[in-house]
């Protein structure tokens, strides 16, 4: 009886101890829904789509767009995490480098919340403004690209985070905060380079409102990162490799 209670206590503590060095890292969280092969196929498809988006932005829009637009920071981070997650899963989490797993987990923590900010801001604030500019410039062919840029990365990241065994460290909100501040400097540099604001809410015209908007964006991204880590990702169930095999076998028998 006591051994049963001890084993239950260990299982209850397991999620808190879970980290990127666990052998279950990036294994399927819901193997009955998506098994390991299916999850890796999904990661591969997302990697290809994100890379195509990266290339099209580089060719159709401008190479500098990769640096000065928050959207492309998100797309690049999503691309890297999709590729790294696929690599780690195929190689075996116990065989992959600890540094690579740590980098992948940090990027996942960063891009999961950042893509939410990027996608929400685009579809609620920027969509009409961006489409109007595209039509005025006669570049209607890039409209599907804009839609893809602001939807595919979030889809890819959500699939990787929700369907994979991962746990985030809420204390890493500092990484998102620093990255967001660095982006503000990059966006300011982009405005100086092209001679006009890249976002209507970040005109960098010396006004109090412009700096306030920048501070608000940094704070929102940082707080959202903490909340997503602590109250969303870390509340999702974990599936151990042993339980995953049992679940898969049970589903095959049924």
TrEMBL record:
Membrane-crossing residue ranges in chain numbering: 41-61, 67-87, 107-127, 147-166, 173-190, 210-233
Keywords: Membrane, Transmembrane, Transmembrane helix
PANTHER family linked to this entry: OS02G0130600 PROTEIN-RELATED
Cellular component, GO annotation: membrane
UniProt source species: Halteria grandinella
Protein name: Transmembrane protein
């Amino acid at each position: 009886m006591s051994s049963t209670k001890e084993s239950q206590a260990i299982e209850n503590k397991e999620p808190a101890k879970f980290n990127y060095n666990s052998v279950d890292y990036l294994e399927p969280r819901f193997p009955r829904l998506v098994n390991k092969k299916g999850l890796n196929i999904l990661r591969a498809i997302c990697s290809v789509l994100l890379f195509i988006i990266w290339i099209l932005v580089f060719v159709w829009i401008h190479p500098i767009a990769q640096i000065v637009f928050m959207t492309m920071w998100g797309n690049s981070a999503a691309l890297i995490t999709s590729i790294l997650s696929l690599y780690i899963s195929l190689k075996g989490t116990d065989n992959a480098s600890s540094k690579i797993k740590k980098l992948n987990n940090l990027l996942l923590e960063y891009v999961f919340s950042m893509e939410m900010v990027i996608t929400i801001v685009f579809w609620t604030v920027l969509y009409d403004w961006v489409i109007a500019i595209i039509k005025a410039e006669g570049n209607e062919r890039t409209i599907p690209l804009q839609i893809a840029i602001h939807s595919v990365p979030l889809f890819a990241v959500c699939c990787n985070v929700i369907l994979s065994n991962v746990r985030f460290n809420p204390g890493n909100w500092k990484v998102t905060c620093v990255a967001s501040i660095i982006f503000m400097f990059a966006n300011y540099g982009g405005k100086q380079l092209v001679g006009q604001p890249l976002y209507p809410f970040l005109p960098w015209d010396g006004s109090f409102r412009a700096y306030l908007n920048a501070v608000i964006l940094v704070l929102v991204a940082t707080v959202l990162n903490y909340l997503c880590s602590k109250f969303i990702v870390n509340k999702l169930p974990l599936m151990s490799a042993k339980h995953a095999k049992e679940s898969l076998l049970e589903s095959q028998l049924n």
